[in-house]
User: What shape does this take?
Amino acid sequence: MVNVGIVGCNGKMGGFVAAAVEENNNCQAMFGVDAFGKKGYDFPVFKSFGEIDSVPDVIIDFSNPAVLDDMLCFATKNSVPCVICTTGYSQEQIDKIKEASKQIAVFYSGNMSLGINLLIELSKQAAKVLGEGFDIEIVEKHHNQKIDAPSGTALMLADGISETLSEEPQYVYDRHAYRKKRSKNEIGIHAVRGGTIVGEHEVIFAGHDEVVTLTHQAQSKEVFAVGAVNAAVFLANQKSGMYNMGDMLADKFQ
Assistant: This one.
């Protein structure tokens, strides 16, 4: 049984993580960490890392970039692996995460959905098979409150596909800005914003007289919490280093 510490347990995603931990037979919540204190959980919630009186097997973090230093200090001091799901880090903070991974196992991914990361791996395999004869386009759809475009996940898809191509592609975001035929080394990336769409990603491989399409739809944000919990169970037995969903999928495929 993997004992989990949940950082940011009072946030929306923290609540989803707590529920996902409860439903997973391979782990249990040991404690939460949140500046606002306990909020209806049956496990203890500490306001700071200095109050923690036990050492978990792994930490899942869905909190705020401001928490990073204290969390990494606690984790490295006690040799606790970390699943880091918080976004919005500066480059300096990302460097701190990488430095900490020299001492502890760190799972860090731009998207914690198991399905999305499988989509990335499938897209990479499709690009290898279909080769240069197919044009590649990525379409992502999200709710009307999302600020950034394209999504980080769309860029993860493009970057993954780029690794398999013999020639480095050009990412094209805005075709109306110029009038010319599509070049073969392009990956088109398109953003749609509307309503309450949680997240949809589509990878299109368009060839001569045939089209192959790979898609993923997130029906709720709970999928990211489930992915984080699966990552925690995976990470608990790993040595120090940086890990992501690709590593976990490779482990599942063995």
About this structure: Residues 42 and 144 are 35 Å apart (CA to CA). The mean pLDDT is 92. The first helix runs from residue 12 to 23.
